[in-house]
Amino acid sequence: MKEITSEEFEKEVLKGGKVVLDFYSTECPPCEAVAPKFEGLAKLYGNDITFLKMFRQQNKPLAEKLGVKSSPTLLFFDNGKQVGNSLSGGIKRTDIINQLDNMLPAERVKEIKSLIKPSVSEFDVLILGAGPGGLTAGLYLCQSKVNTVLIDIALPGGQVSTTHEVSNYPGFIDPQPGYMLSHNMSEQTKQCGTVYKVAVDVSKIDLDKKEVIIDEFETVRAKKIIIATGTSPNLMGIPGEKEMKGKGISYCATCDAKYYGDKEVVIIGGGNSAVEEADFISRFASKITMVHQFDAFTANKQAQEKLFANQKISTLFEHEPRAFVRDGDKIITEVENLKTKERIKLTSDGVFIFIGMKPNIELFKDKLELDNWGYIKTNEDMLTSMPDVYAVGDVISKKYRQITTAVADGTIAAIAIAKELS
Q1: Could you give phi then psi for residue 293, rounded to 5 degrees?
Q2: Domain ranges for the chain
Q3: Does the fold of domain 241-353 match that of domain 2-113?
Q4: In the CATH scheme, what is the code of domain 119-232+357-421?
Q5: Which of 124, 206, 252, 388 is catalytic?
Q6: Rounded distance, CA 250 to CA 257, Å?
Q7: 123-168 pLDDT per residue, tens
Q8: Among the CATH numbers 3.40.920.10, 3.50.50.60, 3.40.50.1370, 3.30.1060.10, which is that of 241-353?
Q9: 168 by DSSP, 3-state: which?
Q10: Higher pLDDT, 127 or 30
Q11: Which of these, 214, 84, 127, lies nearest to 413 by C-alpha position?
């Protein structure tokens, strides 16, 4: 694999036939995650497609000209023309493969696929999920000299990485950006020696055999498994939500608030997430309408006081959305007054939904004992109903779900496991 500069771009890329170019940066966890995938695929597809790398910081004018705004970003070229879609952020191996396959004849793709050989790797402990609970478990296990692998379909950090500010994590006097707190957690665990396999596709999870298949070809086995898969935002399930998800309807303020500078938004919800994120969104939006089904917010009092003092924010209590409709560049949120049953229409540039979370257990929910809300039951050592299978963090049945409680769960599970394996 060759690294090039802007001066070589025309010769190596525009006149290079079929090319895939990786714009990378230093101190970039997503770049580190994609590098082994890129290198591995270069060995498979390298006779047909040229794999090149370019250091983005030192070639910024070219990167900007090509529309590259983040690292890593992969661009695909065929005889001087950019083809397919650019890939950036937490890039999965299968996404790269799909783009590469589209550049080659079907018969040649079949030949290349025949060269892919299944592989097996073995560890003492396999952690599913790289949020605070999983990262903490990985840290304690590697410090105990336990051979540990951490697997995640996204990049390390979990929901913390998309939280704009964390003000209640012990040890920090000033509020910390969520992405920075999760980055520091991840780097500490990585430097300790935990093996990372992140931004991967998880094809199968077999808790009986204690093995996970990732990217369709690699089987990862372990003596014990820690489930730290966390939760995902609840959907409202009303007309228009699915169609406009990611196209005006968002579930992440940190990800999308910046796109609503001087615009109007609607926020659905009244818990801590909704109220705290409303304050953050108000840094960008000119007007916010909160829609909440109850007659009062359930968020903590400090957050509520801050919200009520914010002149950009108004509230519709005892109302519930019934549908979302696209009207040009606007979104119409149709809401119903729960007392009078009267319906009104709210026009905005975007909608944020914060109505709670659900546990990420789809691939193994039938194997474990769950509580009435679908969360995994554990004992005091974080052991589930299955031998050698533990669970930590937001995915387990417990009263409070905070970063600090997830970290505590990870600590307990790791210590229990380390003692058993010693």
Answers
A1: -75, -20
A2: 2-113, 119-232+357-421, 241-353
A3: no
A4: 3.50.50.60
A5: 252
A6: 9
A7: 999 999 999 999 999 999 999 999 999 999 888 998 888 777 788 8
A8: 3.50.50.60
A9: coil
A10: 127
A11: 127
Contact in structure between 4 and 12 (CB atoms under 8 Å): yes
Residue whose pair of structure tokens reads 């990262």 in the numeric block:
135
Whether 252 sits among the annotated catalytic residues: the reply is yes
**Could you say which of 215, 256, 349, 394 is catalytic?**
256
The domain made up of 2-113 is a member of CATH 3.10.20.80: no
What torsion do the CA atoms of 243, 248, 254, 260 make, to the nearest 10 degrees?
180
Q: pLDDT tens digits for 397-418?
A: 998 889 999 999 999 999 999 9
Residue 378 burial by Cβ neighbours in a 10 Å radius (0-12, 13-18, 19+):
buried
The pLDDT tens digits of the residues spanning 214-228 come to 988 899 999 999 999
329 has catalytic annotation: no
255 is catalytic: yes
CA–CA distance, 80 with 334 (Å, rounded to integer):
48
- From 201, 255, 295, 371, active-site residue: 255
Query: How big is the chain, counted in residues?
Result: 422
Query: Whole-angstrom Cα distance, residue 253 to residue 243?
Result: 19
